[in-house]
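Cross-check.
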Amino acid sequence: MELLDKLTILTDAAKYDAACTSSGLDRKGQKGRLGSAMAPGCCHSFSADGRCITLLKVLLTNCCAYDCQYCVNRRSNDTPRAAFTPRELAELTIQFYRRNYIEGLFLSSAVLRDPDYTTELMIRALRLLRQDYGFGGYIHAKAIPGADPALTWQLGLLADRLSVNIELPSARSLSLLAPDKKKEAILKPMALIREGSAESRRSLRRLPEARALRFAPAGQSTQMIIGATPENDRQILNLTQNLYRKYRLKRVFYSAYLPVSGSRLLPAAEHFKPPLLREHRLYQADWLLRFYHFDASELLEESQPNFDPQLDPKCCWALRHPDFFPVEVNSADYERLLRVPGIGVTSARRILIARRSSRLDELSLKKLGVVLKRARYFITCSGRMTEGLRLGPEGARRQLLALERPRVLALEPEQLSLFDREVGV
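Predicted model, tokenized:
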């Protein structure tokens, strides 16, 4: 098979993997080597279908020994198959980098023969890049669950970031749809990467960069499929929180299920639409867990296990807790400011600095980056009630629904009837 044909097949097969949104580490270029890495780099150019193209996102092979029902590369699926040799992949990456097409490599793979053999091939490809070609650019590699820990360790010494896909939100769904994969096999490499990354950070603090241990210095991430199985948002968010706390993940990516299989165990394709809005709400809640100091139990309860499709999770929490508001912007601490819809991490810090020299009013807040069209229902300025605060919780909900309506319609056009009934337009 021609190299271009392989590239066409294996880049298309990789589009279902979520790429990292930044490299997560800085590494300067070195004399005699090719490439460097910047912490905010890797995602500022996108293809027509929304995929990031600053990384060469590709599979080593789509020939798979497993038969996961939700996967386009499953063993039983009739699809064109291809595989790069480690040398082909390394040369392709270097040629693309020299032409300024890419900033780095995102390497994943189906399971060819078994996890150990597949990981060995990935290691050979990355070793060629790092040692033979002197490539110092960013590399994100997918660790294969079930591979020997020694092989995963070698992979981490060559890559900047590793990820292990948790695939589905529960062990029951995993055993039903991916019988070849086990929960324990997925979590074991996560623990190894956590310890290796921690040791790498400690080593970098103690030793010069040239001598320090370099094991996945940008940490690890994971991905799970949303909508293929019956787990609710509360189960997914609790799992996400546990992954962040136990395995120190940098990101959990959510992927709305796309019907690529006719399996009776999955939603029927003719009646199924990818849950893009649900994926969006989970990403918003994920942000609240990581940066706004929310707990999963605060955002969803047993009596309400799924997110409101009409409002973002932060607004929903605020409307359910009228006793917490109003928040006085001239005296509230940082944690309290973060709970206000329309006030983000940056604007909360700006408020703390600005109010040292003057009292803040609505005009001042707008200049500081506060989204007043949301915040005005939940704040006071020097004891003075904002205009929106006078509407009360129900009035605030109606106004917030009207604000959210255009954003939701961009994701899910069928939500129009929901908004029409709620807002009365």
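Residues 313-423 form one domain. The chain has 16 helices and nine strands. Passed to J.P. for a second look.
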